[in-house]
């Protein structure tokens, strides 16, 4: 029998799909991780996440022999300033996400990440002076209408959703300006390095005030909190592999997997309510998402994504 030949392109595509799907599956299931945590404030959790993420990233840099490349980033003043800004934007995103999950607003968090691609399109117009295609304008219109409907129905602006969408939108914008300066692991390490001193001081202050969940935890819980570093870095690295192997349209389609999983968890696991106005608002956002996907598929192929962006 003639040995079966393996198509290397198809194999790479399949591997990329597995990597991308796994990354978004981890991000989508993140609220379940929060259910296992002890009583901890959103700010302390983010501080703990920063410290353990830095430890894990440094270990990965050593294991993958990227430390010299990482050290070279310190000589690039502009890149350092951009990553400093990116670090505080992603920290704001992490805090908002932790607040959302810990206070029972998982649905608002999922809405924020559904809206995020629309915000990215809008920032492209306002900041980068890009010209939108007709379908993109229609998607922005539906998203704006959704926010109005939700504001009226909830009796307040959905600030968690908008905060998540805009903080990550601006984070992506800054990372876009960074471009290829450093690897995904290197830039994530630098971002956590910028935040680490503040995080360490905050954790120390909580410990001195005898108000730290980390220092009051048993060894098993400390390990659970330490896992936040792994949960931060692993999906980013998986996504980086997917971005190199898949077309832009495929990666763009996969990004909605995470908020969809979060939406299902909010309904079935966290038991959050979905009144009529919220269904209408989400429906309008989903229409906008479908329009974005259709436009993405119709647009000229852009190859693969240049640099992976982190979700939460």
From TrEMBL:
Transmembrane residue ranges: 21-40, 46-63, 83-104, 110-128, 135-152, 158-174, 194-216, 222-242, 254-273, 279-297
**Main subcellular location of this protein, as a coarse class:** membrane
Please name the InterPro entries in this protein's record: EamA_dom, EmrE-like, RarD
Question: Keyword annotations for this protein?
Answer: Cell membrane, Membrane, Transmembrane, Transmembrane helix, Transport
Which residues does the UniProt record annotate as the domain EamA?
16-151
Q: Where in the cell is it found?
A: Cell membrane
GO cellular component terms, A-Z: plasma membrane
Pfam families assigned:
EamA (PF00892)
| Membrane-protein topology | Multi-pass membrane protein
Q: Where does the record locate the signal sequence feature?
A: none
The UniProt family comment states: Belongs to the EamA transporter family.
The name on file for this protein is EamA family transporter RarD
């Amino acid at each position: 029998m003639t040995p079966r030949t393996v198509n290397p392109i198809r194999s790479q595509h399949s591997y990329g799909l597995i990597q991308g799907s796994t990354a978004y599956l981890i991000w989508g299931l993140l609220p379940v991780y929060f259910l296992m945590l002890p009583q901890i404030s959103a700010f302390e959790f983010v501080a703990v996440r920063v410290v353990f993420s830095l430890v894990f990233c440094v270990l990965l840099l050593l294991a993958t022999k990227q430390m010299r490349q990482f050290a070279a980033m310190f000589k690039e003043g502009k890149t350092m300033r951009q990553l400093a800004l990116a670090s505080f934007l992603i920290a704001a995103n992490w805090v908002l996400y932790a607040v959302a999950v810990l206070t029972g607003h998982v649905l608002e968090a999922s809405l924020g990440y559904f809206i995020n691609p629309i915000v990215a399109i809008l920032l492209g117009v306002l900041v980068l002076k890009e010209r939108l295609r007709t379908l993109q304008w229609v998607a922005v219109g539906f998203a704006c209408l959704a926010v109005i409907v939700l504001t009226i129905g909830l009796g307040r602006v959905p600030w968690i959703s908008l905060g998540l969408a805009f903080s990550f939108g601006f984070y992506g914008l800054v990372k876009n300006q960074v471009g290829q300066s450093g690897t995904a692991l290197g830039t994530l390490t630098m971002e956590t390095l910028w935040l680490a001193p503040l995080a360490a001081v905050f954790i120390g202050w909580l410990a001195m005030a005898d108000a730290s969940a980390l220092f009051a935890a048993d060894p098993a819980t400390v390990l659970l909190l330490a896992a936040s570093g792994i949960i931060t870095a692993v999906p980013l690295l998986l996504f980086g592999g997917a971005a190199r192997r898949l077309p832009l349209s495929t990666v763009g389609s996969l990004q909605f997997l995470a908020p969809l999983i979060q939406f299902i968890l909010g309904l079935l696991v966290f038991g959050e309510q979905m009144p009529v106005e919220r269904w209408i608002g989400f429906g309008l956002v989903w229409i906008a998402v479908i329009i974005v996907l259709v436009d993405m598929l119709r647009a000229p192929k852009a190859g693969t994504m240049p640099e992976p962006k982190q979700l939460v």
